[in-house]
Amino acid sequence: MIAAAPLKSFQEIQKEWERLLAISPVNTLFLTPAWQEVWWEVFGNGSSMAGFYLRNSDGIKAIASLVRHDDIIAFVGNRDTFDYNDFMIQPGYEPAFFFGPAGPPGRTTL
Q: Cys-Cys with 10: which of 33, 81, 89, 96 at CB 3.0–4.6 Å?
């Protein structure tokens, strides 16, 4: 079973984050926990963390590093690097991330 948990800090799941990023198709410097933390410390004033991650018994399968500023939720990171801001998802777990544990309509297993 896969479950969502709020992302409260970048250190909280750092080792698992780095492992997931290494196998993710969107592995860039801008998605490392170190880069995200520095960005947050410099530019995160007045914002709150709005990210989450998906975990099952085998570990973390997806991370959504998001920030909330007023009524806007966006990726953590600079708008100028938007090509590098993305969701980190272990290949094969995209349906669980985008559609929830049940997957897309009509799918019976994950």
A: 33
- Return the SS3 of 82: helix
Helix (H, G, I), strand (E, B) or coil at 52: strand
Q: How far apart are CA 94 and CA 39, in angstroms?
A: 26
Dist. CA 110–CA 98, nearest whole Å: 12
Closest residue by Cα to residue 88 from 53, 66, 63: 63
Domain count, the chain: 1
Task: With beta carbons less than 8 A apart as the criterion, state whether 107 and 95 touch.
Answer: yes
Could you tell me the end-to-end alpha-carbon distance of the chain, in angstroms, rounded to an integer? 10
Residue 97 in any domain: the answer is: no
Cβ(7)–Cβ(52) under 8 Å?
yes
pLDDT in tens, 48-94: 999 999 999 999 999 999 999 999 899 998 777 677 889 999 999 99
The confidence score (pLDDT) of residue 77 equals: 84
Range of the domain at 82: 3-90
Tokens 């009509």 sit on residue: 106
Question: Would 98 be classed as within a structural domain?
Answer: no
